């Protein structure tokens, strides 16, 4: 896997780094590899955007792992938003039963102390990202 490099603007506080991770990069990774990739980015104060998101089990494990890494003197946790949200029509139980479950979804994850969701509905996620 190629190493991600950053420019000096993100390191000196002048910018916010956003890591957009393709479905292709996540494909074939085990759950814990995905979680580590996400949390490493968030620990570096980056916003992580996943093209395909996580399945519900992976998302639960991400939250569980995040809770175990919260430190009062440092890491404050994550904020996570997924589009389409719970209100989106995914075909329901019958659709999943018939194999129409499309897990494709965009997920935004960031440090809890830097990202705040202002509004979320089926068509829009509005987020405020603050500097350190």
Beta-strand fraction estimate: 15-25%
Shape: globular
Distance between the termini: 29 Å
Mean pLDDT across residues = 79
Per CATH, the class reads Alpha Beta
Number of strands: 6
The biggest beta sheet reads: 4 strands, mixed
Q: What is the CATH architecture assignment?
A: 2-Layer Sandwich
Helix content: 25-40%
State the secondary-structure class: alpha+beta
The unreliable regions are 85-89
Number of helical elements: 5
Task: Return the string of H and E elements.
Answer: HEHHEHEHEEE
Might you state the CATH topology name?
A: Methyltransferase, Cobalt-precorrin-4 Transmethylase, Domain 2
Largest sheet: spatial strand order = 1-2-4-3
Count of the separate structural domains: 1
The radius of gyration is 16 Å
Structural notes for this entry:
The chain is 31% helix and 23% strand. The protein is α+β, with helices and mostly antiparallel strands. The protein has a single domain (16-129), classed as Methyltransferase, Cobalt-precorrin-4 Transmethylase, Domain 2. The strands form 2 sheets. The chain has a 4-stranded mixed sheet with strand order 1-2-4-3. β5 and β6 (125-129) form a beta hairpin. The longest helix has 14 residues, at 56-69.
Set down the secondary structure blueprint.
Layout (H helix, E strand, L loop, with lengths): L7 H4 L6 E4 L1 H4 L4 H13 L3 E4 L5 H14 L8 E6 L8 H6 L8 E6 L3 E6 L4 E5 L3
Parallel strand pairs: 1-2
Antiparallel strand pairs: 2-4, 3-4, 5-6
Helix pairs in contact: 3-4
